[in-house]
């Protein structure tokens, strides 16, 4: 992108000709809960996510972000520089690091085991659990009627039996701090060992483990970011890591899966904790923070999504490898439903705050964007049970599968076009950043019919019985989840 002899404008040339000097570590915590109103999650044993070690470049600007008032079912004017026709594919910043397609060549050194304990003390990234995610730039000025104080508690949305069952299931199954600590310790250890091979690579924990939508049995998704002037071949890198992982005492059962996004799957030795590691699939980092912003925008989001994922898994429609819905697809379906109600529970954060979810911002700065999103106060005060029944009704009787595309980015159903992405597809769910179809795994009519039938049957049963056990064995699910403790 730039001549080899020249440094990009505004960036220094490095004296060693290869790598930038080590940046000062900045830790971000992920608790979108310091602001008032509905962002205060008052439920027992609230999980606190740890700060994550990101190393963004030092900012050269002292200009604070613009003031943005609290949203109340309102629409923030879009940034005039935002174009809805942005390029679909994203590139990694190519100026910070050289290509790392092969192991680093270094001067000979005394032999040592790949996971040899370092003499220097290692920094722990699992600290300050009780610090809240905050931004000093917000003054909270609701634009509409304030939500009563009673609705700052999840129990306010659980006055009926069905809603109470949903809260019970959520509180028993949600990912705990100890679960995340365990994943983070393994991530930090892996990053140190991987950097013996790819010196400036960075390893990020993504997906449900980090977006607030995980449960105790959730596997961990990892993204290894290797920046350079040319993308390294994922299969080459993963194959190299698979060989290297054989010498790690804490890793077992490595398996290279040559999917559209290739992954290296492995387990923490002696446990049932499974990891999926990809190379440079940075859209996963971006949508982790987008989904996290939605997850903490309203108290009801996380319980709704957890219950629906458990329901779909129990009814065998939540497995993309078997031609049904991925968990990511289900999450987007839930968010879309909540955005399209007469009184929306959620807005479109990308539409209303495009500058906070810019698909082109450097990956190290992705966590900064959500800090500038103010609290959202919905006028919709439906109970959890009412929303669950409404979700099933929407996809059983209202949504037009043959004519519509689910778009969380636009907070509406888009008409199907004749583009290759949507034609001859049974279910169309738009990926918020890349805008491709995340429901493409559903490619058999029999599987599609089974999915529709499950929505219809569960809606028929639940609207009459108002008992979660009628569509999901709550106690059995809780017991299974508890076995992961």
From TrEMBL:
Its cofactor is Mn(2+); Mg(2+). One of its GO terms (biological process) is RNA 3'-end processing. One of its GO terms (molecular function) is metal ion binding. Gene3D superfamilies: 1.10.1410.10, Beta Polymerase, domain 2. It is found in: Cytoplasm. Residues 112-121 have a biased composition (Basic and acidic residues). Residues 162-295 form the Poly(A) RNA polymerase mitochondrial-like central palm domain. It catalyses: RNA(n) + ATP = RNA(n)-3'-adenine ribonucleotide + diphosphate. Residues 383-437 form the PAP-associated domain. Coiled coil: none annotated. It is an enzyme of class 2 (transferase). GO terms for cellular component: cytoplasm. Residues 52-78, 102-123 are annotated as: Disordered. Keywords: Cytoplasm, Magnesium, Metal-binding, Transferase. Its EC number is 2.7.7.19. Its main location: cytoplasm. Belongs to the DNA polymerase type-B-like family. GLD2 subfamily. This is polynucleotide adenylyltransferase.
